[in-house]
Write a structure and sequence with these properties.
The complex is a heterodimer of chains A (526) and B (131). By secondary structure, chain A is mainly α. Chain A is built from 19 helices and 2 strands. The longest helix of chain A is centred in the middle third of the chain and has 32 residues. Helices cover 69% and strands 0% of the residues of chain B. The termini of chain B are far apart.
Chain lengths: 526, 131
């Protein structure tokens, strides 16, 4: 059990590192200290999550359970890391490290950097915690940790009108969303008598008793339907699927650029992760009869909502003149694709969704961060006022172009392969209309991207730009992300076959998840 | 108390809770004043917490889940299991209350900053963003 200390250590360590940081503000003022602190914390997170990934996928080859305080699963809170959790944790930590490096450059001359780093580390802790937890209530707690940090970061520029307005919108409805998830948990606890994910998963599949856990106490069919409906509302809010997307185009552009990258690339993916966890592990198409009907209905609904997200967001992308708003709408579109794909209920669909998740995270972070450099030099977010600024910053424009081309899907970049996989999954499921949605919204998005690239690079500059020397502090994360886009693209066949196939196999075999929790009870002396 | 009355009271509390949830959601979505929205939000979270407490409710005679003897006799265990209240919903609510306080404080500070910048708390007048 204590061999797997890194599993239990990662999120609490990150939370501790985030919350210790304000103490240093009492006696240290230098920005350099906080930069190094954030770098150390995010590097540590990357090392730990990479080690956990290695452990889960290559050493143990089954989900690892870490019981806190040695209490067996249904009684105590546990972290249960399966391949899906490890995968989400790893790419979150990797991109957060790039964002931390970029922040060093971005925060030059800004006051309040100590609070910025506190919230950024809190955000990372919440995201990794969400991915690692094996307890539905702990997911709520981690979701709140993440949300509070995200609200704080959106209103980081507190003298900016639009940041405060967007933050108000986001935080008020976000608090409602997390409370709705809490109500869903009450229904789950009231009927299943447990909040442990493995325990619920077992009982929803017709299992009667789990060691240390009571019998089912209520009508699990009705309660599961209510809980699924409520929690799906909360998670689609977090991942900005169409009826709940209204906050994203305001909140993401208003935040500081590295935070926009984190919110658009990673935070919406936490919602995706939670949807996958609820629709495949906790409940599933193999649940007992009425519940599986509810699951398949929810999936059909999510397909429709995902298609609407993709179409509406791509149409709205074209009319944006604010570069960050344009990129934010593109996030809604891509989340739409991912949600459609994961709701197909096929292995290929899950593989495509997971692959597109990581490609979109890398591409979107790169796009936001490259655009942030251009915005800072041009002094405006309006594409018309930024005209020609890319001519002064060649390398940044190169990474911007790579990100755009990958999101649009040009071989050999990563986005091409994930869109190909999405297309295959849509066709394979027999819903050719969805493939049309993918193509039409990609075509709309192409118009918007051409407008962006044309405005930033090909248009002649209308004014002189000063301070146009490119700096290594931001080029390092940009070039690293661009290189990883190419690498992900080149290694696509191997990546899909080795990693994603393994993850989806595990997702379609939820009893493996249950058995891991069951076996730890025996170790602890059940 | 008879079980009929119990069932009736449980239904009344459940229906009034649902009514409170409905009213508070209306308040959050429809009232123009941000402070009133925040008040409605706290009512909403409190209703959710009360729902959780209701799940852990046990008809009296009930007692805290504490065994005073280290080596209890079978009769003590029988009494314990017939009176002990499930402590988990209360622990959940305690956690949710603390988290809710942090979120509410943050939202109130955002509202204060909004008032400083716009000079109003009416959402109909706070419209810089195109939506």
């Amino acid at each position: 059990m204590f061999d797997f200390i890194t599993i239990g250590l990662t999120p609490p360590l990150m939370i501790a590192m985030a919350f210790v940081l304000p103490i240093f503000t009492l006696f240290i003022r230098r920005k350099g200290f906080y930069d190094v602190y954030a770098l150390i914390a995010t590097t540590l997170a990357l090392i730990l999550t990479a080690y956990n990934y290695y452990l889960v996928l290559y050493v143990v080859k089954q989900p690892i359970v870490y019981p806190f305080g040695g209490w067996p699963p249904p009684i105590g809170i546990v972290y249960e890391v399966d391949a899906l959790s490890a995968y989400f944790g790893l790419f979150t930590a990797a991109i957060m490290l790039m964002i931390a490096i970029y922040s060093i450059w971005y925060l030059k001359g800004t006051s309040g950097y100590e609070w910025y780093y506190t919230m950024l580390l809190g955000l990372e802790a919440g995201m990794i915690g969400c991915a690692y937890t094996g307890d539905a209530f702990n997911l709520f707690v981690m979701l709140e940790v993440l949300s509070v940090a995200a609200y704080g970061l959106v209103v980081f520029y507190r003298m900016s009108h639009e940041a405060v307005e967007a933050g108000m919108k986001y935080s008020l409805i976000g608090a409602v969303a997390t409370t709705v998830y809490f109500i869903a948990l009450v229904f789950i606890y009231g009927s299943f008598g447990t909040l442990n994910m493995a325990d619920i998963a077992y009982k929803s599949r017709g299992g009667i008793t789990f060691p240390y856990s009571g019998m089912i106490v209520g009508n699990i069919h009705l309660a599961s339907a209510v809980a699924l409906a409520l929690s799906m509302w909360a998670f689609t809010f977090k991942s900005a699927v169409v009826p709940n997307h209204f906050w994203l185009p305001d909140a993401h552009p208003a935040a500081p650029t590295p935070v926009s990258a984190a919110l658009s690339g990673l935070v919406v993916k936490v919602g995706i992760y939670a949807i996958i966890r609820f629709l495949y592990t906790i409940y599933g198409l193999d649940s007992v009869q009425p519940i599986s009907n509810v699951v398949s209905t929810v999936m059909k609904l999510l397909i429709v909502l995902g298609a609407l997200s993709a179409l509406i967001a791509s149409a709205l992308m074209i009319v944006q003149s604010d570069i960050k708003r344009l990129i934010a709408y593109s996030t809604i579109m891509h989340v739409g694709f991912i949600v459609i794909s994961l709701s197909l209920g096929t292995k290929l669909g899950i593989e495509a969704a997971l692959y597109h998740t990581v490609n979109h995270a890398v591409g979107k972070a790169l796009l936001f961060m490259s655009a942030g450099v251009l915005i800072k030099v041009a002094g405006s977010r309006d594409i018309d006022e930024m005209s020609g600024v890319g001519r002064y910053l060649r390398l940044t424009t190169l990474t911007l172009t790579l990100a755009v081309l990958s999101l649009e899907g040009l071989p050999p970049l990563a986005g091409f392969f994930s869109k190909l996989l999405l297309y295959e999954a849509f066709i394979d499921s027999g819903l050719a209309l969805l493939a049309m949605v993918l193509i039409i919204s990609s075509a709309f998005a192409l118009l918007a991207y051409i407008k962006l690239l044309y405005g930033v690079y090909f248009k002649l500059p209308t004014k002189e730009f000063t301070n146009v020397r490119e700096e290594w502090t931001y080029l390092i994360p940009l070039l690293a992300l661009a290189a990883s886009l190419v690498l992900l693209g080149i290694s696509a066949p191997m990546f899909v076959e080795k990693v994603l196939a393994y993850i989806s196999d595990e997702l379609f075999n939820p009893l493996k998840y249950v058995r891991a929790a069951d076996s730890i009870i025996k170790v602890l002396g059940g | 108390m008879s079980t009929d009355l119990d069932l009736f009271l449980a239904n009344v509390s459940l229906i009034s809770l649902l009514a409170i949830i409905g009213i508070s959601l209306y308040g959050i979505l429809a009232r123009p004043n941000i402070i009133k929205k925040i008040i409605a939000l706290t009512i909403f979270t409190d209703a959710a917490n009360l729902l959780a407490i209701l799940v852990g409710f046990r008809r009296p005679p009930s007692a805290p889940p504490v065994l005073l003897n280290l080596q209890p006799s079978p009769s003590e265990i029988a009494e314990f299991s017939s009176t002990a209240v499930d402590p988990l919903p209360q622990a959940l609510v305690l956690t949710a209350v603390v988290i809710g306080m942090a979120v509410n404080m943050l939202i109130i500070f955002i509202a204060l900053q909004l008032y400083r910048l716009y000079g109003t708390l009416d959402v109909r007048k706070v419209r810089r963003l195109r939506g």
